[in-house]
Amino acid sequence: MGLGRAVRALGSTEELITLDGQELQKIAGDCTVGLPGVDLEHRSGPDWKLYKVRGKVFMLMTDMPGHPVVILKADPDDAAALREQYADITPGYHMNKRHWITAEGGGTIDEKLVKELVIDSYRLVVGGLPKSEQPVDPHTYGRRA
Length: 145
Description:
YjbR-like_sf, YjbR
């Protein structure tokens, strides 16, 4: 169970950051807006949002019983490390538990990490597309020089 809030030091002051499930989904969804080749598909019963690049899913959003979540593709080694480091990251809900993670609100992950997870998931899926269908170079897209 997560701490409910994360403490992040900013200079000499400390600021409490709490990211609930709805904020988590908003940040993740907003992060996809500028990604080349992304389409959003809505599915109902239960309510699912599927974010795809060239027809391949890289992110899903839904409500697990009682709380909103974001489900993302992740490198298996990274996924294991993330699950160990963050209480609010668990194996992928209704997905391959080795290649997918579920992120939920609760306080152990922040906005920056959510954005990094979305971009990494996008790059992983783009990297699996035929080169002629890749909207960006997955090895360089979104990385800082």
